[in-house]
Specification:
The structure is a homodimer.
Chain A lengths: L4 H8 L3 H8 L9 H13 L6 H8 L4 E6 L6 H15 L3 E6 L4 H13 L4 E4 L7 H9 L2 E4 L10 E4 L1 H14 L5 E5 L5 H16 L8 E3 L5 H14 L5 E4 L2 H13 L9 E6 L12 E4 L2 H16 L9 E4 L2 E3 L11
Parallel strand pairs in A: 1-2, 1-3, 3-4, 4-5, 5-11, 6-7, 6-8, 8-9, 9-10
Antiparallel strand pairs in A: 10-12
Helix pairs in contact in A: 1-2, 1-3, 5-12, 8-9, 10-11
Chain A binds a DNA duplex through α2 and α4.
DNA sequence: TTGTAAGCGTTATCAA
DNA sequence: TTGATAACGCTTACAA
């Protein structure tokens, strides 16, 4: 179909190996400059496109990165995927994207199939804390974690500075006069949920506020789950005037719960989310939330994995934390005197 | 690293070719049943994983499908991508996903790079009507269009039944008593925008309603663009009591415009969207919209492309239309007497 | 039913 | 600076 090195070589009356060397940026310096030009021109003219299966077979590098996402339909992830794609493709790499639905079995399965595809490395966005295959996998592949860090193994990661993000949320509420602030926390098995809950407790403590009985965790990142949990939390203590959700879905579920309890947001209760997913500016009420730089998380992760692929230098394990910012909208308001 | 056919052959004292035949479902019937069992067991024991680069090089099939999406961060697409992924991966194929940002140059570029990766076919979700490379590409690759059909070339496609969807929207409004119904149409260069505008005109005509001066097209599928267009449309004719947006973003922009003009939705004006993206149930007001089965569009497209890859039979060009349904929420209400 | 052998398109090593 | 050669792991005529 498409022209091969051999075709170019024949046309030019030179050896295929020379053509290969001339076309490969890493070896073209070994070739006579005139030959290089000649070869490049011929290659362009015959629109030669290198066959990645052939070179991959020879070099055992697929120029392919496995990207493991819990669920692409969660609006948090497409932005990160975009960042990954753009940066990887600029470097000649192709991301292979898969979903796990937060199911460890499914994750094992997709990782195996990416591994069968001979990916050169992994970017993992799955946030389970106890991660059976992580230790094993990280011995055999370059890995970058995104949107989470690892508890056990020391691995490169790119995530938001959760402590900072939660602090922004809590201090925003504090500044509005709120003192009884609750937290609808993420699932305990989730790395981000865990981190944000810890950050919440610490920040509250720093302000001399108690969190006893004001933290409840969902068992899945869904609006419905959050609604149930928030319903119980809010009914248990009517003095709660503000809630920090561990992500936007949880904040949305909390808004729904408040509404069911006839507590108006933000009039009676202020609610803050986390992530700033698309359309959070037009929900009812517009959600005050902590914006994490999704695109940058993705592109930074791509850069980290690429840097691991040039193995000349053993890079130290980089754990990047990107700084989130608070976006103030309509779901938070000053505490009203009662 | 991982075991090869040769390793298994050596261990079993048979020839690699026999191992290959035994392991390949399409040729295993040529091999002694006992040998097959023996080989399978050995392969499992040595956890043999076939090398796709090697087999791809030999067969010139990558078992890979290029999936070209305008923008993954548009919530319309992740659902379709999920459907594609699930169905393809079940068949042993891997989707290679790329974005184009609706930019024809970028599209040419990503198609070229997928082509360089030797994809076995394409699923295209880009909705430009004048599609320079479509004719050419379709001669060299199996192709399935999703979320659109082709104007010129006759190509397999999977899309919503736009006529039906728009009819649902218009008749819902008609049933609520609305007679002066406007359409904020998609960009003229877009296939879906064009189709839906035509469907709108036809349905209105069927009901004896005029559309003159009540259709305006955006130049991009964005909320902001729709807001501007709707602002002009609604101010130009205050008798408009209902609007059909060509997609959810356009409906949201129209809601914003109505709000800016102090016309309350749904009290003063009813607005219907199209697609039912995630979270359209919790925007303000909850959006009445036409739901298209995103997942099914994706999985059906995957099935179509797979069927083209078994070239034994020349399948007739299938143009699948999936039936959308109306989801009634808070953005539409009965016409009020004035 | 199995073995032989060639080749897919590259690249790395060695020799010239 | 270039050429020759072998090999990456697999599949597939063809022969036995």
């Amino acid at each position: 179909m498409s022209a091969t090195l051999k075709d170019i070589a024949k046309k030019l009356g030179i050896h295929p190996a020379t053509v290969s060397r001339a076309l490969n940026p890493r070896t073209s310096h070994l070739v006579n400059a005139a030959t290089v030009t000649k070869v490049r021109k011929a290659a362009a003219a015959m629109d030669y496109v290198p066959n990645p299966m052939a070179s991959g077979l020879r070099t055992s590098r697929s120029h392919t990165i496995g990207v493991v996402i819990p669920d692409l339909t969660n609006p948090l992830f497409p932005g990160m995927v975009r960042g990954i794609q753009d940066t990887l493709s600029r470097a000649g790499y192709t991301p292979l994207l898969v979903n796990t639905d937060n199911d460890p079995d499914e994750e094992a399965h997709v990782v195996a199939s990416l591994s069968a595809r001979r990916v050169d490395g992994f970017i993992l966005a799955t946030a389970r804390r106890d991660h059976p295959l992580l230790a094993d996998l990280s011995e055999r592949y370059p890995i970058v974690l995104i949107n989470r860090v690892s508890d056990s193994v020391q691995l490169p990661s790119v995530a938001a500075d959760e402590q900072h993000g939660i602090r922004l949320a809590v201090e925003h509420l504090y500044g509005l006069g709120h003192r009884t602030i609750a937290h609808v926390a993420g699932p305990p098995w989730s790395s981000t949920g865990h981190e944000r809950a810890q950050a919440f407790a610490r920040t509250m403590r720093d302000h001399g506020l108690s969190t006893a009985k004001h933290v409840a965790a969902v068992d899945g990142w869904s609006i419905d789950s959050a609604r149930d949990v928030a319903l119980r939390l809010l009914s248990s203590d009517p003095s709660i005037t503000a809630v920090v959700g561990a992500n936007d879905q949880l904040a949305l579920g909390t808004i729904a719960a408040a509404r069911a309890l006839k507590r108006r947001c933000p009039r009676d209760i202020s609610i803050v989310g986390y992530n700033d997913m698309p359309f959070m500016d037009i929900v009812d009420p517009p959600l005050t939330t902590v914006r994490v730089p999704q695109n940058e998380i993705g592109s930074e992760a791509a850069r980290l994995i690429l840097s691991q692929l040039v193995e000349d230098v053993v890079t130290p394990v980089k754990q990047v934390r990107l700084t989130p910012e608070l976006v103030i909208r309509g779901s938070t308001a000053p505490l009203r005197a009662r």
